[in-house]
Amino acid sequence: MQRTREEAINGLLPEQREALILERLRTHGRVLAAELAAELQTSEHTVRRHLRDLAGQGHCKRVYGGALVVSPADKPAAVRMHEAVDRKARLAAAAASIVRPKQIILLDAGSTNVAIAAALPENADLTVVTNSPEACARLLNRPGFDVILIGGRIARGAAGSLGATALLQIQQIRADLCFLGACALDPDEGVAAFDAEDAELKRAMVQASSQIAIALTSEKLMTAAPFAVAPTSAVDYLFVEADVPRARLASFEAVCDNVMAVRP
């Protein structure tokens, strides 16, 4: 006789229950302990224990009421530069469309932001301040750009300058628009980074800019990283891919002023 779903759930071994929770995390990004407890017909204490174990294995980050899957962006910059190149180029073209002539643009390091550097309009009399040598290289010898490269120690993982020198220089800037790099983004948990110094520099960029824009690929949405940068409500423009589910998109629209789904 075929087992009912309820019987199947009741018969789960602890490791099977944990595997199911991990599957939910990877599918939805965020899970809530109360909902999982009801679905799995077990206690919230048991679910929280599973989430704690999964967090200890590096699969997720505990947040209030549940957990978030860890962002997949914790890779060397040299690897990220060659991933999803076409997708990042589409996001970059959409992001560059909000730039206006004569603006001072603060451009954070990151593979998508390097694509934005390449997409910025020429002959617009733009001043671009960046901590990314790669982004700087995309702008040199193009007409209409005054490029300022932020100095300091070049962090291999971030492919951009970090540390006290970079932080001091950023604090002396007053930018019209910042294209901020984001390792992870969640409506409730905000923008996050994997490196403490990187997060500190990003916070300084937010403080130095009148408007904040973020363009990021779908796999970074509803994910976590260890170091907080800014609340999602601080983001004025969010550019995401068109394959983001409607419910997930709505959760960002509730806290961001302008959320734009970029179609292929």
UniProtKB/TrEMBL annotation:
| Stretches assigned to the HTH deoR-type domain | 14-69
Supply the Pfam families for this chain.
DeoRC, HTH_DeoR
User: Which SUPFAM superfamilies does the record cross-reference, listed alphabetically?
Assistant: NagB/RpiA/CoA transferase-like, Winged helix' DNA-binding domain
Domain of life assignment = Bacteria
Gene Ontology terms for molecular function: DNA-binding transcription factor activity
Tell me which UniProt keywords the record has, alphabetically.
Repressor, Transcription, Transcription regulation
What protein does this entry describe? Transcriptional regulator, DeoR family
Q: What InterPro entries does this protein map onto?
A: Carb_Metab_HTH_regulators, DeoR-like_C, DeoR_HTH, NagB/RpiA_transferase-like, WH-like_DNA-bd_sf, WH_DNA-bd_sf
Organism, by scientific name, is Paraburkholderia susongensis
